[in-house]
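Posting for a labmate who doesn't have an account.
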Amino acid sequence: MKYVIKWFLPYWKEHKLRMSVIILLGLITAFLSAVIPFYIKKIINGFEHNLTRGYLINNVILMLLLSIIHYITNVVSTVNRAYMNYRIEYEVRKKLFSHILTLDEMLFAKYSVGDILTRFVDDISEKIAWFSCSGVFRFIQAFFTIASVLIFMIIINIKLTLIVIMPMPFLLYITTRFRDVLSKKYDLLQKSISEMYDFLEVSFAGIKIIKANYKEKKFYKRFEQLSYLQMEKAVDAEKKQMFMRYIFFGIGTLSVFLVYLFGGVSYIKGGNITIGEIVSFQVYTFMMLFPLSDVSQFFVSGHRAKVSIKRIDELLNFKPSLIQNKNYKKIDRVEEIKLINVSLKINESRILSDININISSGKKVAVVGKIGSSKSILLKVMGRLIEFDNGNFFVNSIDIRDILLCDYYKKISYISQEPYIITDTILNNITLYGNYPNSEIEKVINISQLEKDLSNMPKGLNTLIGNKGMTISGGQKQRISIARALLKNPEIIFMDDSTNQMDLHTEYLFWEEFEKYFRDITIVFVTHRTFRIEKADEIIVMDNGRIAEYGKHSDLINKDGIYQKVYQRYKSEENYKI
């Protein structure tokens, strides 16, 4: 539990005034909870001893005032605890999302999207948020309530108090005994929830493929299996939690029986006890049930929170694979990119080997090769999306690791093979919520050949795109991605086969417009279009993660090498499509 409390401390310190108010109100509420039954005893004893009417009225009025104050402090305390639950939920989620934005795609190589979503939603909202304030501070209030109640019980009758608390050590034993069991049960439950989120994400993302292959029944069957496994784990964990809860209430009820048994016997025998004291002990005993339940809930929910916090910490402790040296340097303009003997290994497999490239500003460089020759990986390395293992990568003769990442990213645009589309308007997909002049937006729309598409949409740029762009074509997605990349006005563009879903005529028009406005820009592109490859200043031919050939089209095409074969295959594919 120390680990959990230590984890929450920075959040509590940020709101120390409100947390102090919560603790103070909890103490007042706990004390008043114990005082009220004391006055119940005095009133009942007043009836028994025929005390004055004024005495009874004064005590009833005082008890009523204390009850009103108790109600107000309890309500204010509860409202503040609820606020802090949501506030800490907001801050934890914000911190986690901010950290994930600093990571690269290696995160998603280790964790599935469904697993990350589970941690964002279920772990933070359901397990961490409630415990962060309500779980901990209800326990503190419960502790002081029990302590206050015991003090008043001792004042009233110490022997009966000792009898009532006799079952309490058994509660401590049960709590300790089930602590580790519950932790394991909730760990298994969280894993099953992650599996379900992952399956749903994959299913909804690929719903077209599922329906096209008539696999609805298969996926439903798998969904049913995962749902049943999750239900079994949830029921198993809930059984253990309910067992602990009912043990607490059962022992509380036993304590009430002991009050009536020993208190009643003592009263009958003429012992030093009154009816008012017996009734107050009954009230005190029942009053301890809910605080005892909060104590039980503290340990149960605490272990659930601990499991979830560890899962959040796994993500927060995940380090970016991209190396960034502390003494970074700024660059005004990218004049040259140079890779010297660059290599990359992923999961013990050599992906890139001895890459040597020198690209000057304004050059148009095509990257070609067979499928699986690591063309895309090469672009990702140059775009600083993944880290290389060995060799050197220089920008303007400066080590890339000495250049601030965000500074480098501002000067480049990377367009992936699979366009990134958000469920929002076309405008927000292009700007990614940035503010740009309308003239700049119109320019990139014209260059990317989106203008004709928008003219056929009633709302134009404000047209809402469905989930992952389901309502638009592949070519339209690519044109949106290109418009987004150009809007940055980058110095270098890395294009990973990002025009392959455009028809040939549209692509001709795009490149024609592109060269009017971005003639001096540096482009490194993967493509299967032979007309673009022919126009490239330099061509990099990849084969099994190595540069097999390097040069111009006019030189490489006459060699009986890999480029000639790749080019002929690309040409035959184009002729087949025509």
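Reply:
Got it, the structure tokens are right above this. The mean pLDDT is 86.
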